[in-house]
């Protein structure tokens, strides 16, 4: 989804429930058959979810800022992937996880969401470049310290 304001485009992170479920089934299947994952394969942990961003506009975008809203204290790590998923669910490999990672947190009793500004800025600028060549991008979001998907709204804002 994309919210449009004069001169700004806000691209929302949308949880991909189906893809997350498929990836959890992969991990469960390996465990049930007592098999190991492929060398370098990234299996989803219980606190990790797959999100997607649909870039409805791809050109002349300039990163402005992240818009992260947390309804309660906790921490989320946002990792971009270079993966293009296919209907047969190509497995996610660790080498497909992009750097830097955006880490956002909210301390108990505060309203402000904090982050490492330099990494968040670099990550946003990297997304700006990737948006030029991708209509859809997938992300791995890892939740800790009591935060979960129900208490997070995440988007990235670009100048058009």
TrEMBL record:
InterPro entries, per the entry: Olfactory_marker (IPR009103), Olfactory_marker_sf (IPR036727)
GO-annotated cellular components: axon; cytosol; neuronal cell body; nucleus
GO biological process: sensory perception of smell; signal transduction
Superkingdom, taxonomy of origin: Eukaryota
Signal peptide: none
Pfam families: Olfactory_mark
PANTHER family, A to Z: OLFACTORY MARKER PROTEIN (PTHR15357:SF0)
Identification of the protein by name: Olfactory marker protein
Organism field: Gopherus agassizii (Agassiz's desert tortoise)
């Amino acid at each position: 989804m994309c919210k449009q304001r004069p001169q700004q485009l806000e691209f929302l992170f949308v949880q991909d429930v189906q893809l997350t479920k498929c990836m959890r089934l992969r991990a469960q299947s390996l465990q049930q058959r007592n098999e190991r994952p492929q060398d370098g394969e990234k299996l989803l942990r219980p606190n990790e979810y797959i999100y997607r961003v649909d870039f409805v506009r791809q050109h002349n975008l300039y990163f402005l800022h992240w818009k992260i809203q947390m309804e309660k204290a906790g921490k989320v790590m946002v990792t971009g992937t270079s993966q293009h998923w296919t209907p047969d669910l190509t497995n996610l490999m660790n080498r497909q996880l992009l750097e830097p990672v955006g880490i956002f947190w909210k301390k108990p009793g505060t309203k402000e969401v904090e982050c490492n500004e330099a990494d968040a800025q670099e990550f946003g600028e990297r997304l700006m470049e990737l948006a030029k060549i991708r209509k859809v991008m997938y992300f791995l979001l890892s939740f800790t310290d009591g935060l979960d998907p129900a208490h997070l709204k995440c988007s990235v804002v670009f100048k058009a």
